[in-house]
Amino acid sequence: MNHWTDFFPYVAMAIKVIALMVAGYFAIKWHFDQDRKLKNKEKQEQQIKTQD
Fold it and tell me: What keywords appear on the UniProt entry (predicted)?
């Protein structure tokens, strides 16, 4: 294991795992943000209805 190609699969797998973790984090964050946005919109609509 003296050549750089011997280590390439380990490095590539580490980069792949890190990229998937980051992508998963942002996917989960996006879904939570969309849910929060929807709830805020519903809350504002409810407040407008109660004011009338």
Answer: Membrane, Transmembrane, Transmembrane helix
**Distances from the Cα of 6 to the Cα of 10, 14, 20, angstroms:** 8, 14, 23
Model pLDDT for residues 17-45, shown as the tens digit of each residue: 999 999 999 999 999 999 999 999 999 99
- Cα separations in angstroms, 23 against 3, 11, 29, 41, 47: 31, 18, 10, 27, 36
Residue located via tokens 């996917």: 27
CA dist 16 and 33 (Å) reads 26
pTM, whole model, 2 decimals?
A: 0.71
Those residues with Cβ within 8 angstroms of residue 1's Cβ, 6 or more apart along the chain or in another chain: 7
The two structure tokens encoding residue 18: 């890190």
